[in-house]
Amino acid sequence: ASSTQHSLDDHLIPRDQVPHYSKSTFWDVSIQWLIKTDQPIHILQNPVFQQMINLTSCANHSVKILTLKQTQQSIIDLFKSNLHELHK
Predict the structure, then answer these.
(1) What's the rounded Cα separation, in Å, for the pair 69 and 17?
(2) End-to-end alpha-carbon separation of the chain, Å?
(3) Phi and psi (nearest 5°) for 22?
(4) Confidence of residue 73 (pLDDT cuts 50, 70, 90)
(5) CB neighbours of 86 closer than 8 A, spacing ≥ 6?
(6) Residue 11 confidence (pLDDT)
(7) For residue 85, how far is the Cα from the chain centroid?
(8) Can you tell me the mean pLDDT for 32-36?
């Protein structure tokens, strides 16, 4: 096993490009997200959505969101893993 540690630099966004947090800005962006993605209002109460928000709020820098291809591959990998677990 390799003991070298890889850099996170490619995954971080400079602090000056991260918008300043405020409750009203968060609410505004949440409403915009609901409307633009045609989400049901109750999605904001979804435990997994809230877990995602809580997790990202602990980040020291902005969070880099996966590309469509990365997201697709992650879902496929998870599906295959779950399918494999079912066959055990």
Answers:
(1) 25
(2) 28
(3) -150, 155
(4) very high
(5) none
(6) 60
(7) 25
(8) 94
The DSSP string of 5-60 is ----GGG---GGGSPPP-HHHHHHHHHHHHHHTT--GGGGG-HHHHHHHHHHHT-S
Can you tell me which residue has the tokens 């609410």?
Answer: 27
pLDDT of residue 49: 94
Binning pLDDT at 50, 70 and 90, where does residue 4 land?
low
Tokens coding 52: 């995602």
- The pair of three-digit structure tokens given for residue 74, joined into one six-digit string: 């992650």
- Of 29, 11, 15, the residue nearest 70 (C-alpha): 11
